[in-house]
Structure formats: C-alpha cells, structure tokens
Automatic annotation (TrEMBL):
GO terms for molecular function: arylsulfatase activity. The keyword Hydrolase applies. Belongs to the sulfatase family. Signal peptide: none annotated. Pfam families: Sulfatase (PF00884). The keyword Hydrolase applies. This is Arylsulfatase. Keywords: Hydrolase. InterPro entries: Alkaline_phosphatase_core_sf, Sulfatase, Sulfatase_N. Residues 49-384 form the Sulfatase N-terminal domain.
C-alpha cells in the first residue's frame, strides 16, 4: 500500500492501517444494511400483491362466456375464469351505478352508506357525493404503501370537490368525473386529475375523434408500466363504461358479428344518447372490445413479469339495461329482471378473481359475496385493518387463498332502490330472498329451489318472512337525502 499521500500530512503508517480497516468495515456494514433494507422491501413487496379491479358498466350476469354467453365472444374474460376463481353468487352494491360504486369504494352496504341513489333522485334533487368522512379503499391502501390509480368512470363527485378521486386516496385519475359525461364515448373533455383535458376533434353528436375506452386502456397500461420505476405495489381501479348507453363502437369491433343472421334491433335516436343504428351487433362489439382490451392488460402483466404478483378481479356495477326483457343474448342469465330491479337479474353480477399461484385455477365458489366485501378483502391482502368501524363487508381473502375454514359469512345482504320504480328494499339471508315494495307488499323466494324468483312463497312461510322484515327494518340508518317515499320524478 502506498502511504505517501498520508505521510505528507504527518500520519504514520501504524495509524493509517487501522483507520483504513475501520473504514472498510463501516462501508461493508453500510452495504449490508442497505442490502437488508432492499431485501426487506422486496419481502414486503412479495407479501403485498398488486391489485387490479376491472369493472364493466351495465354488463349482465350472462353476458360473459364463463357464465354461459353463447353469442358474444369473451375469450380473455373466459381465460380469467379458467385461470382463476368464479364467484357464482356475487352481488353489486346496488341496481344502479352511483350507490353501487359507493358501496365498492367504502365497504358498506347502501343501507348505511353516504350515497344511496343516482344523482337526481335525492330529496332535494341535488347529487350527494362521497365526503371527507368517507374512508375509501384507495385511502386504506395508501396506508399500506400502495400507489393508487383510477381510470374510467368515477361518478362519485357530481357536484362537490370532496368527492373527487384525487381527494379520496387516488394518486392518479383519468376519465369521467360525472355520469352525464360517461354517457358518451366521444366526450370532448375527460378529466386528468382535477382538470379537464380537451380532446381535439371529439364530438358527441357526430361520434368523431377518439373512442374514450381506447384511451382508458392506454392510460391503464401506462399506469401499470410505471411499476418498473416504482418499488411500491399498486392498486388500479379500471372502470370501463362498456356496455352502458349510449350504444356505439368503432366498426372494427362490429365486423365479427355482421352477417350472422341475428335478429335486428333498431335503436331509437334521441338528443341525449346518440346510439348506433343497430343494437345487437353494436352491443356485442362493445363487450368484445372491452374483452380485447382486458387481454392487452393481461399480456402487459405477463410481459413485465407481474403475473404472480398481481390479483386481477373483474365484475359489473349492476345488471343489464340493454336487455332486460329481450332474450337474444340472455344477458341476465337465468335470472329475473335487470337494471333498476332488486330481483336477481338487477343485482347479481359476474365476478372472477385471478392470482396465479395463490388463487387456485379453474375453481368456483358459491359463497355469497358483494361489493362491500372488496375493501376488507384487499385490506387483508395488503396487511392492514379497515380503519372505519362501520364497514359492513367481510374479507374474502380466506376463500381466495384456499383457507375456506377461516371464511366468515354475513348473516344477511341488504339493498334498497330510490327511484320512481321504488322505493324497494331487498334482503338475502341464506337461501332466502325478500323483496319489499315499500308500503305495499313483501315477496319471499327460496333461491335454492327457485333461483328465477318465479314463485312467491311469502304466505307459506310467515315466520321466515316476519324475521326478514324485521332485519330489513333494522338494516338501514335514516338518511334525509334518501327517504323511503314514493316519487314519480326527482323530488
């Protein structure tokens, strides 16, 4: 070792050598500590999956191949089912959009939630949004170190700044803020964060410009690809608007369904919804385009090596609007009703979860589950406890991870509906389902024997009916914005 530089300043060799050895030891220990920190970080990362929730809009239980769809091709959703777990008895938070999404975000059934109806169906006619007091799934996951993003339809900030996703725990937002915006696939001003971002050439009436669902997919892929530059796990809520009205899709998605001899269904042409002329081909094309885009997301995860680190869930916000009575697509499967009904067709929705190596492939569960369960489920997967004691959902993590002996069950599931068809309330308890037409009657069905809800057995089971009506009465808290009263138009 050349000691000349040190000798110049009067250091002797016998002092220099120990100093060098101590310095080397310190550097070695520091490197070891950094390496240990990196290992700990990777360990935490491995124990916290990335979470992607994909939600369709007004997609029926029977609109996907894994639930029996015969006409519309959904190969990527069917792949999810083949590689994951199908929930046969999964329920939306509501039979319409806004309260359903509130239940999903807050982990509460709508009898105790802030939002219990769509924007104009409140007591005052003014929308009720999420508030600062609501604790969302994004806020919970932020506590666990997640990067959070929402792409697509938000619909929980109609009039207030409090309800904006960027003020409800999301780091990133691109899409529709309000319901009116989300009715149009060529909307000219989607939101990015808390500002609109004009799209040159987009026009609702001429349906020209960029198809927003394509942009949603692009933004979702960009959010996922940022994982390469970020050590944090991520949560992506991808809220597509397909196949909600208006019915419109680019021609390339219609092409596979042309010339098949399908019955035609001409669509009415109004000022608000600017539908494509032919309904059946358009509807099928919209669902298949969404399926194609989900395939692109799955391919992205595979290319990035994130498959085994990511749980992907797919569902729909409520039952079908396009086909509630027409039975060509059989959108609601075997079930009665659709959107704005509290029969099974209005609230039972497709649900599949895929997580390679954790969720057993090709499985199904009859566990009764609902949107309120999403928050406590991902909290458990992320290693945190829900901070709001009013959460009504239960964690589905034991079922997803194969520990079914640990799986809790809720005694009942509750819904209500506050538009002109109502007020309506519904309760599922075991195999029993009660549908109450407030102020008139309550129907009772045994879903095990009668999943189509064709035979009202209320008169034959007075004790069960009485018990379920008692639970219905106690399940909800009073909400001045959503009184259970008859209305023919917004109040």
């Amino acid at each position: 070792m050349n000691l000349y530089p040190f000798k110049r300043f009067g250091f002797s060799g016998w002092l220099i050598l120990p100093c060098l050895l101590i310095g080397a030891l310190v550097n070695s220990l520091s490197a070891a500590l950094v390496d240990d920190d990196a290992k700990a970080s990777r360990k935490l990362r491995e124990n916290q999956p990335n979470i992607i929730l994909i939600m369709a809009d007004d997609l029926g239980y029977g609109d996907v191949g894994f639930n029996g769809q015969a006409h519309i091709k959904t190969p990527n959703l069917d792949r999810l089912a083949k590689e994951g777990m199908v929930f046969s008895d999964h329920y939306a938070g509501s039979t319409v959009c806004m309260p359903s999404r509130c239940s999903l975000m807050t982990g509460k059934h709508i009898g105790v939630a802030t939002v219990r109806g769509n924007p104009r169906w409140t007591a005052t006619g003014e929308a009720i949004d999420l508030t600062d007091s609501d604790v969302t799934v994004a806020e919970e996951l932020k506590r666990a170190g997640y990067r959070t993003g929402v792409v697509g339809k938000w619909g929980l900030a109609e009039g207030s700044e409090e309800g904006l996703p960027t003020r409800q725990g999301f780091d990133f937002f691109y899409g529709y803020r309000t319901h009116k915006e989300a009715h149009h696939y060529y909307w000219p001003e989607p939101w990015r964060g808390e500002q609109t971002e004009p799209l040159e050439g987009n026009d609702v009436q001429t349906k020209s410009g960029k198809y927003l669902q394509d942009l949603f997919t692009k933004e979702a892929l960009g959010f996922v690809r940022e994982a390469e530059n970020d050590q944090s796990p991520f949560f992506l809520y991808l809220a597509y608007t397909a196949p909600h009205y208006e019915l419109t899709v680019p021609d390339d998605s219609k092409a596979p369904y042309l010339g098949l001899g399908w019955p035609e269904r001409p669509m009415p042409q109004g000022k608000h919804y600017v539908h494509d002329l032919e309904g059946n081909v358009t509807y099928a094309g919209m669902v298949s385009r969404m399926d194609r885009d989900i395939g692109a997301l799955l391919d992205c995860l595979e290319e990035m090596g994130l498959d085994e680190d990511t749980i992907v869930l797919f569902t729909s916000d409520n039952g079908p609007e396009y086909e509630k009575r027409d039975r060509f697509f059989n959108s609601n499967g075997r079930y009665r009703g659709g959107k704005r009904d509290l029969y099974e067709g209005g609230i039972r929705v497709p649900m599949v979860a895929r997580w390679p190596g954790v969720v057993k492939a090709g499985t199904a569960t009859p566990l009764v589950s609902a949107f309120e369960d999403f928050l406590p489920t991902v909290c458990e997967l992320a290693g945190v406890v829900p901070s709001d004691p009013a959460v009504t959902g239960i964690s589905l993590a034991p079922t997803l991870t194969g520990n079914v002996e640990r799986q809790r069950n809720r005694e009942f599931r509750y819904w209500e509906f506050n538009e002109k068809q109502g007020p309506l309330q519904a309760l599922r308890m075991g195999d029993w389902k009660a549908v109450r037409f407030v102020g008139k009657r309550t129907e009772l069905y045994n879903l095990k024997e009668d999943p189509e809800e064709e035979s009202d057995v209320a008169k034959a089971n007075p004790e069960i009916l009485d018990r379920m009506e008692q639970i219905i009465d106690s399940a909800r808290t009073k909400h001045d914005g959503f009184p259970l009263v008859k209305r023919s138009r917004p109040m």
